[in-house]
């Protein structure tokens, strides 16, 4: 999978880091670990893109509580943090990029990516919101970087569930790290080979 | 509440119409009933706006399963229907407005609207996605109309829960119509008196 | 509604007490307020039953997070507290009554009670577990009292949702106190007029 | 694991059978496949117990929608089917065993079983209700058989989540079959070595 950069976050609370572990199991891709902070994440992303010069960038974060792998569709120009980041920063209703457009759509073929994950046995779906915290911040920053400086790059964001170890006694949905890695491998492969214009016309919207 | 237009949808399936009933209980506003179809809804909205010449437009729809009143933050330029509309139409991955921007933010003071609903005793929160079905279609169409033709108008979208009558035996969250009307009254009043720039800086984002 | 005693709990945490308020709105019944503690609740119940000599006893508690009124079917002989009660007591895996049977079924006509609540417009269902905390403790204690000393009395337990005031900003299901009272009135009326043997044969079980 | 019999159900709808597959991966135990029907399941269970003469019987069923492995605590003497079984039979409010006690507690050390599953990395918890369908029917029938004819046998019931293959596009929690098998192995090992009297005093109750 030449030309794919996958990024993961360091843990928000200093604990486990299953999304980073999952990324490490995807064969043949470049990876970058990003800080869990509004200040710094986008600079690290820019540096990683400059270093690896990828054709496809897939940023990955954890959406604890979701039962399946979700391919995000849209990044919004909004930081609205309901908890502080690792640096204690907590922006409310600020733009990610002052003067940027309200939103960017993923340029990954989201339906084909979902279908590819399912084809390798991993439950997956399209998500219509990446929230307004660090994951959306990174997603928007990536798409703005692509739009303004790297128009040939395809980019998008994928949310992954808790690992079983994180929720042993919590009755919360989870997914083994190896299974997450299978989904990410299928998604990365699809992102390299299918353009957004060639995306599958599959059902995948939300009523609300 | 001079100058407020509130719209509701006709029922998707010909059954009950609690959001329309709720709108009818909001004092001192103009109302319009819109068809539950991708073809036609925006034309009806345009006609209602032309007729009433409002200062504020609040479109209302039902988000069955949500437990509280949700003030939507962002409309995306995407129709992706997971079920057919009343006319049997089911667009997949098509823009609401060809060539329109990826998204518009609500120009209602969403945090102040949420606070106003809570202040009258109704659970409420900000929502980061209005889905990709008719509600988002209408919301995007409204914001595009405002952006391109009616820049002085403030507009946004509010989702309301099932009514109790709709889910008597389904163990699903619901809210009485009169209570929904109280929230909508508080939201409309707030939308008239508070500008987006004067919105409250309250916690209200989503982690993912 | 001659001969009906309805009991409510004092708040666990000293805060609001919507179930007690709801009980106060049920016309023509006797009520008793019970302490939120493993030690004391059953003594208070016994005293209230002795004082009022009711034909029907309906104990009521709050099941925060449930969206509808639930008529409990079975009380089990088990105290297993996941949090301390108001007195700081936290029994783990102890019987409610040493030597008592494993469980008692409600002697209210649970299906007819559910149907009666729905008939007055309140979502309701049968629940197969009242948990292992104070509500089940009281429910089991009531049924044991009836079985051993008051065989002519009908008894059961009803769980009610959060009130809206308790969850204004929490995106949790809720139900207005007046609506809860309507359901309790319908349930009490049904419990007086319909015997367990005359219960309706309606669908109301759980798959698991 | 000498002396352990684990039973699984045939699929309710003729589809996949992950719980049966999982059981097949538990080393060193005897297994039996039971029909998904109120008429017949208990006869098959009795025959399997007679054939294998086990010291421990663990019956396993699927609880689709639950995110973790749940060790059931109590079986109730009630068949109340909300859907028909495979034979089209749908009992409503009938006893499993006419004249039997209202309930039996599991004689597995449920807290120790939960702890054992977590210790091998599988999310698990105690459940206070096995429903009123076939799983509870089998669980009650097992405990009644033990109580009346096989007092030396320990028995209980474990519910397992959907497999990923069953919910690829449904955004429902799931767990890989191999992981379920790990939990069942840990539970069976614990059930052999720890008596009910020696169960761990761990938190594991439910508020309601």
UniProtKB/TrEMBL annotation, chains A, B, C, D:
Protein name, as recorded: Pyroglutamyl-peptidase I
Segments passing through the bilayer: none
Compartments in which it is found: Cytoplasm
Enzyme class: hydrolase
Origin: domain of life: Bacteria
Keyword list, A-Z: Cytoplasm, Hydrolase, Protease, Thiol protease
Keyword Electron transport: no
Database matches in NCBIfam families: PRK13197.1, pyro_pdase
GO MF annotations in UniProt: pyroglutamyl-peptidase activity
UniProt source species: Streptosporangium vulgare
Residue positions of the active site: 72, 135
Chief subcellular location: cytoplasm
Reaction(s) catalysed by this chain's protein: Release of an N-terminal pyroglutamyl group from a polypeptide, the second amino acid generally not being Pro
SUPFAM superfamilies to which the protein is assigned, alphabetical: Pyrrolidone carboxyl peptidase (pyroglutamate aminopeptidase)
Role summary: Removes 5-oxoproline from various penultimate amino acid residues except L-proline.
CDD domains recorded: Peptidase_C15 (cd00501)
Similarity annotation: Belongs to the peptidase C15 family.
Pfam families assigned to the protein according to its UniProt record, in alphabetical order: Peptidase_C15
Catalytic activity, EC: 3.4.19.3
């Amino acid at each position: 999978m030449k030309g794919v950069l996958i990024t993961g976050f360091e843990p928000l609370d200093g604990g486990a880091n299953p999304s980073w572990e999952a990324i490490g199991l995807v064969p043949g891709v470049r990876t970058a670990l990003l800080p869990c902070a509004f200040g710094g994440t986008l600079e690290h992303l820019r540096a990683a893109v400059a270093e690896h010069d990828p054709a496809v960038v897939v940023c990955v974060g954890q959406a604890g509580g979701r039962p399946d792998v979700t391919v995000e569709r849209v990044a919004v120009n909004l930081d609205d943090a309901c908890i502080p980041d690792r640096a204690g920063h907590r922006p409310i209703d600020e733009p990610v990029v002052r003067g940027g457009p309200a939103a960017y759509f993923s340029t990954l073929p989201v339906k084909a990516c979902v279908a590819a994950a399912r084809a390798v046995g991993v439950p997956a779906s399209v998500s219509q919101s990446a929230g307004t915290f660090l994951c959306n911040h990174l997603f928007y920053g990536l798409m703005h970087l692509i739009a303004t400086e790297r128009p040939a790059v395809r980019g998008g964001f994928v949310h992954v569930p808790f690992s079983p170890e994180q929720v042993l006694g919590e009755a919360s949905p989870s997914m083994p790290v190896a299974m997450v890695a299978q989904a990410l491998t299928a998604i990365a492969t699809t992102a390299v080979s299918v353009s957004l214009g060639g995306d599958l016309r599959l059902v995948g919207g939300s009523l609300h």
